[in-house]
Amino acid sequence: MKRIAVRNLRLCTKDCLCLYVCPYGATDTEDSIIDASKCTGCGICADACPSGAISMVPEDYPPQQVKTDEVKNAIEKLAYSRTLAEAKARRAASESGKDGLRRLMKAIEGSSRLVAEDLMREGRYMLPQSSNALDLTSALLDDPPSKDFPEESAREILSRIRCNDRKESGGSYRCSVCFTEFTADEGETPICPMCHASGKDLETI
Ligand code: SF4
Ligand code: SF4
């Protein structure tokens, strides 16, 4: 199975070692995305990267195995338990007067949500939480592509699912990646000035 290299931009420290070692110039790109059309999958860059920012992944993933009902039920139970853990951590964070404990609970809340989301995706549910997906759902509702479009379900999604990456109103934020606190003006998309995290990596304070 052919492998190709992919770079995790969040881990990359831009020391450019991969650029020097790649024999095919696949890492020398304007947008920092490794050029898959030049990459032969030799793995030299991944071995050289001091930050562990490069992973070797299959070029073509095998088709997903069909899941039995037993597996699907187990996934749903696990996802439910992570959802409960998220809710408890959120409550503990909001009730705690200690900053350290509050941050720990926020981290547990976030990691529980990530695990629950992964489980739901594994169970083959789509979670339209991004602004792009919600805007698309809204546009489809305004102008349904066919008579069969499930308008009721689309309305339910828009009313129940919270957008996880749109925080456009001004205010104060804390970055959950580097813990920098900063403010953003009204209408400005908040982006951490230290590590450039945005969206769900920011919490309102
Ligand atoms: S070697 Fe690793 S850390 Fe250095 S530029 Fe390449 S991906 Fe980034
Ligand atoms: S795996 Fe080999 S060919 Fe691909 S980017 Fe890394 S060094 Fe270059």
SSE blueprint:
Blueprint: E1 3-7, H1 17-21, H2 44-48, E2 54-58, H3 69-95, H4 99-122, H5 131-142, H6 151-160, E3 171-175, E4 181-184, E5 202-204
Antiparallel strand pairs: 1-2, 3-4, 3-5
Please provide a written account of the structure:
The structure is a single chain. With 205 residues, the chain is α+β, with helices and mostly antiparallel strands. The protein has three domains: 3-58, Alpha-Beta Plaits (2-Layer Sandwich), CATH 3.30.70; 69-160, no CATH class; 171-204, no CATH class. It contains six helices and five strands, in the order βααβααααβββ. The protein has helices at 17-21, 44-48, 69-95, 99-122, 131-142, 151-160; strands at residues 3-7, 54-58, 171-175, 181-184, 202-204. A three-stranded antiparallel beta sheet has the order 4-3-5, with no helix packed on it. A two-stranded antiparallel sheet has the order 1-2. Strand 3 (171-175) and strand 4 (181-184) form a beta hairpin. It is globular. The chain starts with a strand and ends with a strand. The mean pLDDT is 87. One iron/sulfur cluster binds at residues 7, 12-18, 48-49, 51, 53-54.
Order of helices and strands: EHHEHHHHEEE
* Amino- and carboxy-terminal Cα gap: 48 Å
**How many independent structural domains?**
3
Sheet of most strands: 3 strands, antiparallel
Low-confidence stretches: none
Strand content: 5-15%
Gyration radius over CA: 21 Å
Counting copies of identical and different chains, the oligomeric state is single chain
Q: Mean pLDDT score, rounded?
A: 87
Ions, cofactors and other ligands present here are: iron/sulfur cluster
Query: Helices and strands: which structural class?
Result: alpha+beta
Could you give the order of strands across the largest sheet? 4-3-5
Number of helices: 6
Choose one word for the global shape.
Answer: globular
Query: What is the count of β-strands?
Result: 5
Q: How much helical structure, as a percent, in the residues?
A: 40-55%
